[in-house]
Design a protein that fits this description.
Structural class: alpha/beta
CATH class of the largest domain: Alpha Beta
Number of helices: 9
CATH topology of the largest domain: Ribose 5-phosphate Isomerase B, Chain: A
CATH superfamily of the largest domain: Sugar-phosphate isomerase, RpiB/LacA/LacB
Radius of gyration: 22 Å
CATH architecture of the largest domain: 3-Layer(aba) Sandwich
Length: 210
């Protein structure tokens, strides 16, 4: 594939009809060249630009709807987060649990993950004692990318670099205030860098067994 820092009218006339060329990051196409490229149906791919399929893997932003659930260890944290999230204007689907008896984290994390995979929610939060178990369970659902975060930096990285659409929290690791800070960092971070989207596409291929 030919690569250009700038595409001029002269360059455009040398290209075959339907040819695909690469424009360097920050490169430029002159106005006359654009007309010629269009007439010749030449496809110009910008370097580092994500394809449509890759861009489609980015999680929704801003997040407007959330599914949330916890096992028995995270009831208090979940209830507090649910009220706080609703106060921020988000639509929150609280999937429990609310009983006093033990509840298994695969059940609660799985319910959140399935809601996100079915696009019933833009994203989800699953809470157990330490967050790890819920992340493992949620990641078994195709289309879900779950990660546990205990700091704002981890939450931002999980969203920006890995497109995490289910955040898992440890009720025995985070205070209510710390949990809100972690969730805020995650909610406010957007995934858009082409290099991260390309890596996410590779993860999706692994998920499909390729």
């Amino acid at each position: 594939m030919k690569r250009f820092d700038i595409i001029t009218e002269c360059d455009a006339r040398t290209l075959a009809r339907g040819e695909v060329v690469l424009l360097a990051r920050g490169g430029h196409v002159t106005p006359l060249a654009r007309d010629t490229l269009r007439a010749r149906a030449v496809v110009v791919q910008e370097e580092d630009a994500a394809t449509a399929d890759e861009a489609a893997l980015a999680p929704p932003h801003p997040i407007r709807t959330l599914a949330i659930a916890s096992d028995h260890t995270g009831i208090a944290l979940r209830r507090g987060l649910t009220a706080w999230l609703r106060s921020r204007g988000l639509a929150v689907r609280d999937l429990g649990t609310d009983g006093s008896g033990p509840v298994d984290y695969p059940d609660t994390a799985g319910a959140v993950a399935k809601a996100v995979a079915a696009r019933e929610a833009d994203a989800g939060i699953a809470i157990d004692a330490f967050g790890t178990g819920s992340a493992i369970a949620a990641n078994k659902i195709v289309g879900v990318r779950a990660a546990a975060a205990t700091t704002e930096a981890l939450a931002r990285s999980a969203r920006e670099h890995n497109g995490v659409n289910v955040l898992t929290l440890g009720a025995r690791l985070l205070s209510a205030e710390a949990a809100r800070d972690v969730v805020t960092a995650w909610l406010d971070t957007r995934m858009r860098e082409p290099r991260y989207l390309r890596r996410l596409a590779k993860v999706a291929r692994l998920e499909r067994g390729r």
